[in-house]
Each structure stands twice: as structure tokens, then as C-alpha cells.
Task: structure prediction
Amino acid sequence: MTDTAIKNHEELWPGYIPMETDPELMEFFGNWAFDEVTGYGNIDSKTRVMMILASTIADGAMTEFGLFVNAALNVAVTPVEIKEIVYHAIPYVGVARTVEFLIAANKILTDNGAKLPLENQSTTTPENRYESGLEIQKKLYADQIDKMDNLPANQLHFLKFLTANCFGDYYTRKGLDLQTKELLTFSILATMGNQEPELKAHIQGNLNVGNTVETLISVLTQLLPYIGYPRTFSALKCLNEINA
Result:
């Protein structure tokens, strides 16, 4: 591997030698992923690792998730931030998939000295969660939020759940700012694939809260080694359509 690739790999996993059974793969993949890819874009190591961590959850990639929880701790991602990334994935991939990653994260954090449970990060109550969620939706989607109630009457509860639960329970939590949460959502949806309407909505949401097109391209670039070319180009297509 190149000196740059080794340096970037060591930043994440000091002293760890990966793929000893497949050194040829590690050489060309490592040079690409930890030199060429890492060298592109406007996000720092901490943000890069946080986005990849969210992506591994969406991909069901437990081995990579464990590696990147440890990498996150090595680049100053806090236990609170790690747990919030896992929590943030729940409304997008479901608790059935996410709970295994929560258990894995808890073990790694405990092994590294964290005392669980961590400090409560909730900011809403059962009485105000809907209104708080709606406030965040309006920040993300502006006047488009008023056009979302076009479902039949017997389906409107899904929109109420979306506002009160996804945005009222999760987006209002402390530990991560709104810009970071929207980048995480972008990473999760891009990784899942076949989520074009939702992905486009959250691309616009990212732009509305100050994340730039270049930042979204940078995130996709860092996700590419982990999600592959088809899903990356699908997300790029959505980005280009929103930014046309």
C-alpha cells in the first residue's frame, strides 16, 4: 500500500493489519479506498467515518460496522454520537435490523470504558413531539410539507407517525446537529438503494439546512467503496435531478 493509504488506515485502526489472507486485494483496494477515495472531497475524517458507520447499518454489514465503531472512537466520535447514529437509523431501516447493531455498539462501547446507559438525549414529550417534529420537517422541506397530506383518510396516520415519530422522536434528539442528521439520512437512503422519492426529498432537505452539493458528492465518494457503483450512480442521478 502507498504511504498515504497506510497513514489513513492507521488513523482509523492503529496497528491493525487487515486481510492477511488476501494481500493482493488489500493492496489495490486499500490504495484506492484509503488513498484515492479518501483524498477526495470536503469532509473530515470524523464526518467520513460517521457516514460510513450509518451506511453499514443500512447495508446490514455487521463486520464492517464493528470495525467502524472502533474507527469512530479513534477519530474522536463520542459514545453519544455513535449511539445517536444507531438510533437515527431505526426509522429508516426498522428496529428489527437495527437492534443487532445496537447490541454490537453497546458491547464495543462497554469494552472501551463507556458506562451504559448514556445520558438521555431526548428533548420532546408525548405532548409536544408532533409539533416539534413538524417544525423540523418545515426546516427541511419548507412549503412542501403542506402538500404531503394527499393520502386517503384511512392512511393519514402514516403521515402523523412520520411527523411525531421519525422527526419528533429522533430528529429532535441532542448529540448530533440537524445538518449531520440529514447527511446520515442521505447516507442511509443511498446505501439502501431503490429509495428515489425519499432520497430526493432528503437531498433537498440537506440543501435546505446548509449542506452543499459538493458535500453530498463528497459523502457519496466516501461511501462508494462500501456500497458499490450501482447504488452510488443511482444516488448521483437523484442528486443531479434535484440540482438541475
Notes: The longest helix spans residues 95-111. The mean pLDDT is 95. The domain at 3-242 is CATH 1.20.1290.10 (AhpD-like).
